[in-house]
Amino acid sequence: MPRVAGQIDQAKSEAILDAAAQVLFQRGFSASVAEIARQAGVSKQTVYNHFGGKAELVRALAERRVHQVTAPLEAADAAEHPRDALAAYARILLEAVATPNSVGFMRLAVQSSVRMPEVGRVLYEAGPRASAERLAEFLAEEHEAGRLNVPDPLLAAEIFRGMAIGSWQIAGLLGVGREITPVEIDRIAEEAADRFMRAYG
């Protein structure tokens, strides 16, 4: 069955984002929109039509990652099982900030934000800040339902994210970290969720 126009547009948008992630990782944030368009197999105008420019491409990449990280908070049973939802969130978050490709991308982003502060601002607002705010919303909902005692959801969200990420991200950004294994990621995520529930349960 042929795809409708909306599906075609969505597929093209995803192809552009995939290309942008690859090109920006390889060439840095100074890479041109034309390079991204070539990698995606579309015209430069198509990239502009879909995203408007490089800053919006970066925003869309960050939003896509945030959607992946916060997906456990949107699961049907998340509200009834906050500990499991938090562990799953921590697991994906740690994978997002501590794996080699993610660290490489963030190192490039930090370096590029010195020359292009608007890119750094967009990446932060659409990425880490949005992820923390969504977690805070989840914690506020759990507080209202009486399953958790979280009088300051945003502060609690930042504390939980700090427990999950620990020093892994900064070590990676400084180039002194070691690769974290899936087993270690699971152990850290479970421990962070357990400690959070003991503090706020």
What does this structure look like?
The termini are far apart. This protein has 10 helices and no strands. The longest helix has 29 residues, at 117-145. The chain is globular, with a radius of gyration of 18 Å. Helix 6 (100-115) crosses helix 7 (117-145). With 201 residues, the chain is mainly α.
What's a quick, concise take on this entry?
The protein is mainly α and 201 residues long. The protein has helices spanning 5-27, 33-40, 44-51, 54-74, 82-98, 100-115, 117-145, 153-165, 168-173, 182-200.
Series of H and E elements: HHHHHHHHHH
CATH fold-level assignment of the largest domain: Tetracycline Repressor, domain 2
The CATH C-level class name of the largest domain: Mainly Alpha
Overall shape: it is globular
Strand content: under 5%
- The poorly predicted ranges are 1-5
End-to-end CA span = 50 Å
**Structural class, from secondary structure content?**
mainly alpha
Our count of domains comes out at 2
User: Would you identify the CATH architecture of the largest domain?
Assistant: Orthogonal Bundle
Number of helices: 10
* Largest β-sheet summary: none
Mean pLDDT, to the nearest integer, reads: 87
Secondary structure: number of strands = 0
Radius of gyration: 18 Å
Relative helix content: over 70%
**CATH homologous superfamily of the largest domain?**
Tetracycline Repressor, domain 2
